[in-house]
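Model it.
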Amino acid sequence: MKKIRYIILFLAVSLLGSCELDMQPESELTYNGFWDTEEAAKAAHVGIFSKYRDYASTQWQMGELRSDVWGGNTIESPFGQELIDNNISTTIVHFGNWANFYGLMHYINDFIKNAPGVPFGDEADRNHMLGQVYGVRAQIYYTMVRAWGDVPITTEPLLEVDLEKLKKPRSPKTEVMDQIKDDLAMSLQYFGNDDSKWNGKNVYWSKAATLVLKGDVYLWSGKVLGGGASDFTEAKSALSQVSGHDLVSYSELWGEANEFNNEFIFAIDYQQDQGGNFYGNFTGRMVDVASLYDETGESLADFVVNGASRFGPTDKTSLIIEDLDDMRRNTFLHMYDNGANHIPYVPNNPSYKGAILNKFLGIIGDDGSRFNYNNVPVYRYADVLLLLAEAKNNLTEDPSVEINLVRERAYGENFVGHEYTNASQAENAKAILDERYKEFIGEGKRWWDLVRAGETFIFDEVPSMDQSEAYKIYYSISESMLANDEMLKQTEGYN
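Modeled.
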C-alpha cells in the first residue's frame, strides 16, 4: 500500500514539476508521527539542502549559459548550444515542468508548515532553521521569476492527491516578487540577531545569505520591475548589513582545502560518496589534453584531468581577462597544439584548441584521478561589494570604493594604476558589469547581471539577443504543460 501511495504522490508532484522524491510529505501519506520530534525536523532540514544540490547545474545554466561567456572552442562536442544561441521557442523549450523546482518547493513548504509546531530543546535552533528555509524558498522563487516572469505560487505542501487542485495559473511577476520579499522578511525575522552559521558551515543558509539575496532581489525589483529608488535604497541597506565576511586572497579562495574560507557566504556542498559537481565538463579527457601545451609552451602530458571539454570561453571572455597584472587572468588554462609562446591571447589562433576552467578543478586522489568535489559558492563577499556598488550607482552615488576593493584584491601589488574613478552613471554601470564579468566567470551570474542592469546591456553584450526578440528574456513553456493544465498561458511574446 505504501508503494502504491508513493507512486500516486510522485505523479501528483510531477504535475507541478517534481524531482525524485526521497521524503514523505505532510499529508495522509506521511508516516505517522514524522513531525513529532526535533530529530525528524532536523533530518528534513538536511534533506532540503541535499535536494537543493540537485538543482545546481540548472541554476548555473539559467544564470550564465545564455550570456556572452561561453561558446568558444571545445575539444569535444559542446553542451548547451541552443541556450548559448538563445534558440528558444514554443517547440524548443528549455527546463520543462518549471525545471522541477516545485518538487523542491514541496519539501520547503512542508517544513515551513510543520516545523513551528515541533518541540525543540532550544527554540533558537528551530528559528535558525526556519530562517534558512524561508531564505531558500525566496531564492528559488527569485530564480523562477527571473527565468519565466509569471509563475504559479504555491506555499502549501501537498495535502492530498487531487490532480485538479494541483493546477494553478501563473501569477504576475509583481505578485511573485511580493512573495519573495515576504519570505525574505520572514527569514530575517526568524534569524533575529543570530549571525551564526548552522553547524559553523557555509553550506547552510544564514542571515548573511538572506541579506545578500535581499540586496540582489531589490536591485532586480528596482530595475527590471520599475521599483526605482526605494528598492535601490532597500538593497543598499541590506547589503551594508552583511557582516562576518571579507575578501580573501585567491590562493585561499579556490580548491577543496579552502572551501570554508571567509569569503564564501553560501556554498553548495559536494562530498565523495554523496555527490560531485558538474565542473568536470569544463576540463577535458587526459587522452586529449596530454598532446597539448599551455600558453607558455609547457607540455600538458602530466596534467591530470578526467572530465570532458564541453564548454569553451568565447574570445570576448578570454580577452576581458587578458591583463598580465590581473590575477583573474588565471581563470583559464588555454591549450594549444604546439609548444610556442601564446602570450598574449590572440583570437582566431589556429593553434588554440580549448580551455580548462581553473576555479573548480577538484583534487587528485590516491589513485591518480581527479575528483570534482569542490563546494561551489552561490554568494561570496565579492558579490556583496559589487551589488552594493550597483545599488549606489543606481542611486547616483559613487560606487568606486567597492569596485576598487575587488580590483585591489585582483591586482595585488600591481593595483596602482588600475584604480577606478567615479564617472557617469552609464560608465559606472558598464564598469560594474565588466568587473562582475571578470570576477564571476563560471559561477552562474553573467546572464542575470546583464538583464538586471537594464537599458540595452543584454542586447549590446550578447550577440544572439536582438531587441526585436526581447520577449526571449523569459523562457517559453511546453505545449504539454499547456495541454495538461488549462489554467496556464504561454509566456508573453511566444504566440
